[in-house]
Amino acid sequence: MASLSIEKLTKRFGVSTAVEDLDLSVREGELVALLGPSGCGKTTTLRMVAGFLPPSSGRVLFDREDVTHLPAHKRSTGMVFQSYALFPHMTAAQNVGFGLEMRALNAAERNTKVEEALKLVRLSHLGSRLPRELSGGQQQRVALARALVINPKLFLLDEPLSNLDAKLRAEVRIEIRALQQRLGLTTLLVTHDREEALTMADRLVVMEGGRVRQIGSPRELYDEPQDAFVADFVGGCNILSGRR
Amino acid sequence: MFVTGRPSLGRGLMRTSVAIAYLIIFAPVLMIVVTSFFAQQIVSFPPTALTLHWYNNAWQKPEFLRGLITSLQVALLAACIGVPIGTAAALAIVRSNFPGRNAISSLLLAPLAVPGVVAGSGLYMFYVLAENVLDRDIKATTQGLVAAHVLLTIPWTVRLVVASLQGLDRAAEEAAANLGANPFTVFRRITLPMMRPGIVAAAMFSFIQSFENLDLSLLLVGPGRITLPVAMLNYLEFRIDPTLAAVATLQILIVGTLMVVTDRFVKLSRVV
After folding, report:
1. What is the mean pLDDT of residues B13-27?
2. What is the biggest distance separating any 2 CA atoms in chain B, rounded to whole angstroms?
3. Rounded distance between C-alpha atoms, residue A209 and residue A4, angstroms
4. Which of A2, B91, B132, B223 could form a disulfide with A63 if both were Cys (CB 3.0 to 4.6 A apart)?
């Protein structure tokens, strides 16, 4: 696992600015959540970290190594997509094994690792199923196993729970957090669900309009919000206006 | 979906209209198959007797067997050439953003809008010109005919493959890149297999378009290289008897089998 540093990261699309001057560092083994309403730039940030989008300016570093201009396939991050993005024509086991194949592992090593990964997400018995033959929750676990099996430098989660029903969401939340802590995964989580962010993250980054509003632990943000936006978004509290 | 108070009435109407639609579609096809077994030479109801004579007769005529072989060859070649071209064009149209993209997209669909006879005459004149310049035979050659039929296959391929590309989840490609696949591997291992239903359907429709084409081919066939539909038209100029119905029945059988077989690999209702 690596640490992540983001320095003055900016992304402009034409005249609009999606992310502006973002500074953030994630320690090894830490889970940081990017939280904010849709359009706040959190997904854009994640996509720049994964290498799917070139930043307009600024730098992305893994373990102090500059990867800003490294293409996605050379970054070795493990990402779980909102839609899971499983390969529809491959079985669950083939999906999980794909990243290992790209790393030129031989079939025997691959099989062992795929089995381990499927066991980790409790899907050992369903390895031969196609994605469409799995439930939403099972597909999500295949996506988790696929991202983890390659031993990524960073674990990236893009709204991983938004397609699950409420009951399952609460369970998986705890499950992913436990897995992350047990394996010591450096994780960046994107979410618009404050409950998800508060229960899972070591630290939260509250974003709005492409800018960071506040960074801190759940406790700090909840008890000492910096402004009305953070208070409202994180706390769900009553806001009284007044004058000094 | 019916939201009326009497769902049974709605369902009844629905079933009736579906039955009528099927009847309209299948009646002519059924008539051809039925008349191919009629014994009398001039088709009239009721049949005096039923016979397989016309099938035997069709088999005896070398022009039909030769026509069938030529048609199969041309259709296979046209599909093999047109589908890769159309697929590449579809990829360019959907995936890249170059100036004139829309113009090219309409241009590729244009052969559908031009009547076959017009396109055929145009090609004929073009081939004559090209022959003068290049000093080699083009019209009345298999190559010339295949080239013309490739024009028929491209619009179908572009349409079907564009549709399958637009429905494709780009996140799967990003996931593959994320797992370490370079762009070429992503295309080979993820994009292409996900496009497969569209490509298979395109190959089938291309084959059928070429196999059944009469109007475009009319001016471009040459002696000894006459396609089956043209051979049938030639026969019809001198005789009217159920031999043609017998040949047509075989044609229907070939196309029908092709569709059923394709459907086993790709559910056609999902792509078309």
Report:
1. 92
2. 75
3. 23
4. A2
Which of the residues A74, A87, A188 would you substitute to probe the B interface, choosing the one with the greatest number of B C-beta atoms within 10 Å?
Answer: A87
Confidence of residue B269 (pLDDT cuts 50, 70, 90): low
CATH 1.10.3720.10 for domain B66-95+103-265, yes or no, is yes
- To the question of pTM greater than 0.90 for the whole model, the response is no
The yes-or-no verdict on residue B10 having pLDDT over 70 is yes
A81 CB near a chain B CB, below 8 Å? yes
| pLDDT of A154 over the 90 cut | yes
Instruction: Give the angle subtended at the CA of A185 by the CAs of A179 and A190, to the nearest 5°.
Output: 90
> Number of Cβ pairs closer than 8 Å across A and B?
66
Task: Give A161-165 contacts, CB < 8 A, sequence gap 24+.
Answer: A161/A191, A161/A193, A161/A196, A162/A82, A162/A191, A162/A193, A163/A82, A163/A83, A163/A84, A163/A136, A164/A136, A164/A137, A164/A140, A165/A136
Strand, coil or helix: B41:
coil
Q: How far is B182 from chain A (nearest CA, A)?
A: 6
What b/e sequence results for B30-53 when a residue is b if at least 16 CB atoms lie within 10 Å of its CB, and e otherwise?
eebebbbbbeeeeeeeeeeeebeb
Question: Using the beta-carbon criterion (under 8 Å), do A76 and B180 form an inter-chain contact?
Answer: yes
Sort out which chain A residues have CB atoms less than 8 A from B195's CB and list them.
Answer: none
- Beta carbons within 10 angstroms of residue B136's beta carbon: 9
Spell out which residues of chain A touch residue B189, defining contact as CB-CB under 8 Å. Answer: 98
ipTM value, please give it.
0.89
- Helix or strand holding residue B35 (H, E): helix B7-35
Predicted local confidence at residue A215, as pLDDT = 93
Across the range A88-101, mean pLDDT stands at: 94
What stretch(es) of chain A map to CATH 3.40.50.300?
A: 1-76+153-244
Tell me: the pLDDT tens digits for A20-77? Answer: 999 999 999 999 999 988 889 999 999 999 999 999 999 999 998 999 999 999 999 9
DSSP state of B191: I
pLDDT of residue A236: 66
Interchain CB distance below 8 Å, A89 and B196: yes
Q: Which helix (H) or strand (E) holds B245?
A: helix B243-265
Task: State residue B270's pLDDT score.
Answer: 62
CATH superfamily of A1-76+153-244: P-loop containing nucleotide triphosphate hydrolases (3.40.50.300)
| Beta-carbon separation of B190 and A74 below 8 A | no
Confidence of residue A205 (pLDDT cuts 50, 70, 90): very high
- The predicted model gives B260-269 an average pLDDT of 77
Report the Cα–Cα distance between both ends of chain B, in Å, rounded. 22
Q: Which of A51, A89, A102 faces B179 most closely, judged by CB atoms?
A: A102
